[in-house]
């Protein structure tokens, strides 16, 4: 007797990848002990598992693997739509130092991290994201930010790899004036405390992934230490690479960010590198030979005026490219898939780039590989974890096996997600969380956002801006 049978769905397996994976219509998925036991035609599985403890009749729905996002900052939701003086934001440096650091990270509290992470993880789950890789940044909240992250994630039920950013940046001091390794040590301590608290629970829903900010906010000695810690705990590294003009690193070190990181020994197949925009051919070769995984964040890069990452070329070089989003804008992964699908066509004036199946793979198989979880998630396959979505399409055309994949870039939205399973547990049912009171989560986030805004001189009620 199995735990659960999902029957009569249009099952999109995405194994071994989106384009080659079998599609069953109608299909079924058998789940036992949190893992997929079998996937196949519905009639066959219904006959074999007629005594299933629970049955979901998914007629009219699409069943697929849960989305995986490889770069987020969940507490960033507290800064959404903050009524700041945008005339001060004339470059990416302004965006980073003012909107990112001064107006957000440097005044984020542990309570804010808890509320923001609860809200962001809840919203991502409800729109189909079952796994995230989150980098927490709040230098004046140390110690304890990761405790708040763990609590929030455990409550909503999302799968996550989390870490705290290691940086030598001194809050309130321009990085060109001074960096201080003592701040990096505090970041290492926060990461190590989490990693040791998790112990050998490497197969749990919550895992540690050492966070490092950038090559330009850390010394080579700190970068080398990050590699040693990641190797000791076998936890992997998450870092931002080349999201700023490479001239800054070249002026500082005479080298680009990939060159600095390679010389420090940080790069490897266990590294998830966010952004990766301003890269030369040589830089791309460095990432390729070190088997670095890229977290492509097209919406964030557009917001900052950073440019468009050379994703098609990176993929041609064999670099594993996945999808991230920084938790700016919507938290709907389908919108990020759609944007990634479109932006490269426009930027390179080539409509053949990134076809629908390839765009979808960014948030499935490629993302699972980036996080070292390709044997666990990213597709519907016997033995893998039962991280499953059921979508109830709102479509003007038939949703058929031959036509379903383009729906992910043309039609589907996060609000089409009806049911979400993580480890075989139904964490979203009929579009609502089964684990938390959504009204309470949203109220707490709004209150913490208002408190953060107030620290910036913004009266959330009156709309007064004193920045």
SSE diagram, text form:
Elements: E1 4-12, E2 23-32, E3 35-41, H1 42-48, E4 54-57, E5 62-65, E6 67-72, H2 92-102, H3 110-126, E7 129-136, H4 145-156, E8 159-166, H5 181-198, E9 206-208, E10 210-212, H6 220-233, E11 237-241, H7 247-253, H8 257-264, E12 271-275, H9 281-289, E13 293-296, H10 298-303, H11 311-316, E14 321-323, H12 333-348, H13 356-361, H14 365-370, E15 388-391, H15 404-410, E16 417-422, E17 425-429, E18 432-433, H16 438-455, E19 458-459, E20 464-465
Any descriptors?
nine-stranded mixed beta sheet, 36% helix, TIM Barrel, 467 residues, Urease, subunit C, domain 1, alpha/beta
Q: Any overview of this molecule?
A:
- The chain has 467 residues and is an alpha/beta fold.
- The protein has helices spanning 42-48, 92-102, 110-126, 145-156, 181-198, 220-233, 247-253, 257-264, 281-289, 298-303, 311-316, 333-348, 356-361, 365-370, 404-410, 438-455, and strands at residues 4-12, 23-32, 35-41, 54-57, 62-65, 67-72, 129-136, 159-166, 206-208, 210-212, 237-241, 271-275, 293-296, 321-323, 388-391, 417-422, 425-429, 432-433, 458-459, 464-465.
- It folds into two domains: 4-65 and 384-433, Urease, subunit C, domain 1 (Roll), CATH 2.30.40.10; 67-370, TIM Barrel.
- The strands form three sheets. Strands 1, 2, 3, 4, 5, 15, 16, 17 and 18 form a nine-stranded mixed β-sheet that branches.
- Strand 17 (425-429) and strand 18 form a beta hairpin.
- Helix 8 runs parallel beside helix 9 (281-289).
